[in-house]
Amino acid sequence: MKKEFVVKSIDSAPDGAPYVILSLSSLKDLKDGNQNPPAAFGSPKVMGFSNMNDMMKDLNKMMSGAGMGMQSGITQLKVEMHEYKEMNLSVGDKVFLELTKAETLGV
């Protein structure tokens, strides 16, 4: 299986390790306009509540990604720093991911 993506963002490792996080979006989703525009500087969306009951009722929705800075339809890859430098990727580049199942030989 081979899929086409566009690099949406490139972030450093949250723990300071020598790798980067590549966020990829499907080219088909971008063409169809199904992606929400990213929040400025990757900041999470803010949800307003009028009382504590509303907050507790919507807590699951908020924690599922809507309020935690995660975007639906985004594929993220952890890439070692030397691999990232070797590929010379930047935001907006078109990339392909190919997945194949390993052949099992023997037992």
Structure explained in plain terms:
This protein has a four-stranded antiparallel beta sheet with strand order 3-2-1-4. A hairpin with a 6-residue loop joins β1 (2-12) and β2 (19-26). The chain has two domains: 1-36 and 74-107, RNA polymerase II/Efflux pump adaptor protein, barrel-sandwich hybrid domain (OB fold (Dihydrolipoamide Acetyltransferase, E2P)), CATH 2.40.50; 42-70, no CATH class. 25% of the residues lie in helices and 29% in strands. It is extended. The chain contains four helices and four strands, in the order ββαααβαβ. It is α+β, with helices and mostly antiparallel strands and 107 residues long.
Tertiary shape: extended
What is the CATH architecture annotation of the largest domain? Beta Barrel
Strand order, sheet with most strands:
3-2-1-4
CATH superfamily of the largest domain: RNA polymerase II/Efflux pump adaptor protein, barrel-sandwich hybrid domain
CATH topology of the largest domain: OB fold (Dihydrolipoamide Acetyltransferase, E2P)
